[in-house]
Amino acid sequence: MRWTGANERTVKNWLAGTYGPNGEHLIDLLRNSDEVLDAFLSLAGREQVIAAMKLVAARDAFAAALEEVDTFINGAGRSVEKSPETLGCRHEGEG
Q1: Is the CB of residue 1 less than 8 Å from the CB of residue 8?
Q2: Within 10 A of 76 (CB to CB), how many other CB atoms are there?
Q3: Going residue by residue through the chain (95 aa), what tens digit of pLDDT does each one get?
């Protein structure tokens, strides 16, 4: 209710399936709830948009994790070399 400003009876009608939210309330729900947005896009046949949003979120999380790793490594006073040898990786055919 606080997302949309709708009264309790109105929301109960939405949940009961008696009525649906008007356009303004629907936009408020979409803005505030990833679950509502996913359901809306899925019902509209726009699963590719959901997949793209999840990829962007995963990329952002990965970038944040890499930033944390870099901060940790640099904070430890170590220089970071990005060659496989310094990371302990072996090339094919090596011992």
Answers
A1: yes
A2: 8
A3: 678 888 889 889 888 999 989 989 999 999 999 999 999 999 999 999 999 999 999 999 999 999 999 999 888 755 555 655 555 666 566 55
- Cα–Cα distances (Å) from 22 to 39, 57, 65, in that order, read 17, 29, 40
Q: Looking at the whole model, is its pTM more than 0.70?
A: no
Please give the structure tokens belonging to residue 16: 């009961």
Residues 6+ apart with CB under 8 A from 80: 70, 73, 74
* Separation CA 42–CA 54 (nearest Å): 14
**Tokens standing for 69?**
């790793």
Q: Under DSSP, is residue 39 helix (H, G, I), strand (E, B) or coil?
A: helix
d(CA 7, CA 95) in angstroms, rounded, equals 71
